[in-house]
Amino acid sequence: MQSSSRPLFPAVESPIELVGQTPLIRLRRIAADLPESVRLYAKAEWYNPGGSVKDRPALNMIQTGEKQGKLTPGKIILDATSGNTGIAYAWIGAALGYKVKLALPANASPERKKILTAYGVDLVLTDPALGSDGAIEKARALYAANPDLYFYPDQYSNPANWQAHYHGTGVEIWQQTEGQVTHFVTGLGTSGTCMGVGRRLRDYRPDIQIVAMQPDSPFHGLEGLKHMATALKPDIYDPSLPDLNLEVSTEAAQNMVKRLALEEGLLVGISAGANVVAALQVARQLSSGVVVTIFCDGADKYLSERFWTES
Ligand code: PMP
């Protein structure tokens, strides 16, 4: 008996071919209080081989670097990342035969460090008090000291980051909603997802509503996201693109992560929970519409966090 009526994925020559084309999942139970004419969907980015939305920009930055002659055999891929982009560089580097060196705050979770080490990454641990900005400064200094040794994609200022979402994620959302998407809601980290998907959906539909979500405090627990007022602003971030900015607390995001597991059967990461909090807030204002958000990653890297057992 076939387990699903979906067409079967053809065999691939490399995991590289499996980046993108992730499922779009309707959230019915979480959105049960909404009218039937308001639909809420989330794009399950843990279906990428590295388990997160960041496989898309990492692959595009690497392939663009190769095309531009900036990444050649023997060079080391260097960047600053507290997590998912690093995991993406790590497996893509291994699959393509490049060494990878990453600066990350020393307090990054043990799961993450183990994953990166398993892929053979050289980790440079930076002062946790300086957060992700400390890691960025370290990567910049390493690159400046030896530019010929490294390929430094610099995800915060590399247009290939948002362009991965412009050519991939945004097109997929349009096709998967059959052009019915009215609102796109997502959190800001490098802002690549928001900028790329936002620009693509606006091309398709100029009245699309783009909603950018941020943590409500600089001292948040929403890994992968930035409190823009206090962080180093990414060069690729254009604050004029979103129609609306919302803030979400760490506690609200954690509660939503628990609800998504219990009510939808979806075990997602914390920024994914925060995205759903913001997307529901948007959806509750509507009498009709199709609201799409992103499940940036799954919960596996966050299982040691305390909130799971706190009520
Ligand atoms: N959530 C998670 C878990 C992430 O790793 C990232 C990437 N930093 C984001 C959200 C934000 O995505 P972007 O960098 O495209 O703004």
Automatic annotation (TrEMBL):
InterPro entries: Cys_synth, Cys_Synth/Cystath_Beta-Synth, P-phosphate_BS, TrpB-like_PALP, TrpB-like_PALP_sf. It comes from Thermostichus vulcanus str. 'Rupite'. Belongs to the cysteine synthase/cystathionine beta-synthase family. CDD domains: CBS_like. Its cofactor is pyridoxal 5'-phosphate. This is Cysteine synthase family protein. Residues 18-297 form the Tryptophan synthase beta chain-like PALP domain. SUPFAM superfamilies: Tryptophan synthase beta subunit-like PLP-dependent enzymes (SSF53686). PROSITE patterns: CYS_SYNTHASE (PS00901). Keywords: Amino-acid biosynthesis, Cysteine biosynthesis, Pyridoxal phosphate, Transferase. It comes from the Bacteria.
